[in-house]
Known about the structure:
By secondary structure, the chain is an alpha/beta fold. It has helices at residues 17-33, 83-94, 112-125, 138-142; strands spanning 48-49, 61-65, 71-73, 76-77, 102-106, 130-132, 135-136. It has four helices and seven strands; from the N terminus they run αββββαβαββα. Helix 2 crosses helix 3. The longest helix is centred in the N-terminal third of the chain and has 17 residues, at 17-33. It is elongated, with a radius of gyration of 29 Å. The mean pLDDT is 81.
Amino acid sequence: MRIRDRRAEDNPDINLVPLIDVILVLIIFFVVTTTFDMRSVLKLELPRADGERAAEQAKTLNLLINADGRYFVDDREALRTDVESLKRTIAEVAGSDRERTVLIRADARTPWQAVITAYDALGQLGFRRIANATAPDQRAQGQGR
């Protein structure tokens, strides 16, 4: 009687299912752990001004106002555009330190009422050091100034 060797007939296969599972898990891991920068979403066009740049302080509180009149205190957005909501957001971010310099970065297309509301909220909270951010005036630089 002849005994057959079945090992010679077996064709090895490569199972791709575990490989696909591992790649899917890696993709999900990288998507979940990726950080997104919210400031890159905000496109501000600062008003133009000619002048010297002031020395920056390390404890500056940034208040951004976009063209739609929405407020962003450092990295937190105020839920509504009224004074009370803005005051609450500023108080949560700043804490009890009212000696910090507040840098208002308002878009050039921002409604004036939004800027006045920001000044009102800061005044009611007791902030006295308030600065406005501007971009250098390109026309003045081109004239040799």
